[in-house]
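User: tokens in, sequence out, please.
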């Protein structure tokens, strides 16, 4: 654990303010769900809550199956970061934040299908652009955007087709149903 040197007092209602610098650094905004943990030494640990994070091992298996069947790289994200991947270097993408543009577009329930250089093509993870075509479908559970599923192709020969689109939509729908159970 890393000390920040910041001390805050709990008010009469049991609240504590997380300093702006820490919120900014960790990407915590108003409305961000926070999970609270305690340990045996009496420490209280706050962590950004991700409902998709509960499915990370399942999502990894799903990404692997989808990637093996389609032959494409697969990424699965929660609202903010990649939680599962197949066909790409894990160090390149796993637990890395999804770009703001992709997050906003999926939050608007937009299906993304684009080739490099075309309007609509956007980097999914900052600094990772080792692909020429992309498809993305938002995962919507209980009416809320909770993540996305991505298919990536390293060639630009129109490899991503209507069949892959249906598979991607099926994957997003299936993962959403898992979250609703």
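Assistant: Sequence out:
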């Amino acid at each position: 654990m890393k000390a920040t040197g910041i001390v805050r007092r709990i008010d009469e209602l049991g609240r504590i303010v997380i300093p702006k610098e820490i919120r900014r650094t960790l990407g915590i905004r108003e409305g961000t769900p926070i999970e609270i943990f305690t340990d045996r030494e009496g420490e209280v640990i706050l962590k950004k809550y991700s409902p998709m994070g509960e499915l990370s091992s399942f999502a990894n298996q799903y990404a692997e199956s989808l990637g093996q069947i389609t032959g494409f790289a697969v990424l699965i994200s929660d609202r903010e970061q990649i939680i599962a991947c197949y066909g790409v270097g894990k160090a390149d993408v796993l637990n890395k934040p999804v770009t703001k543009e992709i997050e906003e577009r999926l939050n608007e329930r937009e299906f993304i299908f684009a080739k490099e250089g075309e309007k609509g093509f956007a980097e999914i993870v900052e600094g990772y652009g080792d692909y020429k075509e992309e498809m993305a479908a938002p995962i919507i559970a209980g009416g809320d955007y909770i993540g996305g599923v991505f298919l990536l192709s390293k060639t630009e020969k129109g490899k991503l087709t209507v069949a892959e689109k249906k598979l991607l939509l099926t994957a997003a729908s299936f993962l959403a149903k898992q979250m609703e159970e």
